[in-house]
Amino acid sequence: MAEHKLLRPYAKMLTAQVRSQAQYRSSFFIDMAVQTGFSAADFVTVMVMFGVTTALGGFGLVDVLVISGVSATGFALADLTVGNVERLKTYVRTGLLDAMLIRPRRVLPQLLVVDFQLRRVGRVAVGVTVLVVALTASDIDWTWWRIALIATVPLAGALYFSAMFVMTASVAFWWIESGEFANAFTYGGRELTTYPINIYANFFRNLFAFGLGFGFVAYYPTLLILGRPDPLGLPGWLGLAVFPVALIAAGLAALVWHNGIRHYKGTGS
């Protein structure tokens, strides 16, 4: 009962946002169609690449589409639920964050619901559709654990990308004009996880795929689902590393966020 009372104000703010967007239905559906089209274009890019080659890093079109579908679904879920936090720099500059801080509610949930964009659900639909089509076209030997893996890996990926959104947006507490820096890790990370990591140069792969954990979001889980060995020679159990990696990223994001809130001095507006 106490939890319901705690969440009720956020639920009302979220409902108000959805209702306000639904008031302008034509605009809403046009926005959602545009968002869906841009997301679909990412997969068209993959298919165009396979128009000039038959394999990418030793992987065929269907295999790469499975990797892309896992990555896109996880990213789209994170973008739908947490992506709004990237507007933190704007709220700091305009003083809206100061107004949130004086309310008797947690700041991060307020940020997530204050400008919730329902139209982003189209991106989730595209990612799920591509993933289902690619899995149907593949010759996977389905077992119960592979079904469980494909059902949970995009959720773990969503947690990982959500953590990246929060961590990189929190930089605005110290550096307001940090938007491009944040985009390099969020949207740049999405692009990196769209393709097999063995196509990247060693330095780039070691830094971003292994050092920052992007390689465990879609590539290694997909190898386990497809039953394929890693061309880099690493063990198959790395396909399960997405879960601890996502939890570690979430913990780091919480630390960065709370440290930023604690040191935030306000804009003086």
TrEMBL record:
Record field: transmembrane: 56-78, 121-138, 144-176, 197-217, 237-257
Membrane found in the keyword field: yes
Record carries keyword Transmembrane helix: yes
Keywords attached to this entry: Membrane, Transmembrane, Transmembrane helix
Pfam families: ABC2_membrane_6
Name of the featured protein: ABC-2 type transport system permease protein
Origin organism lineage: Bacteria, Bacillati, Actinomycetota, Actinomycetes, Glycomycetales
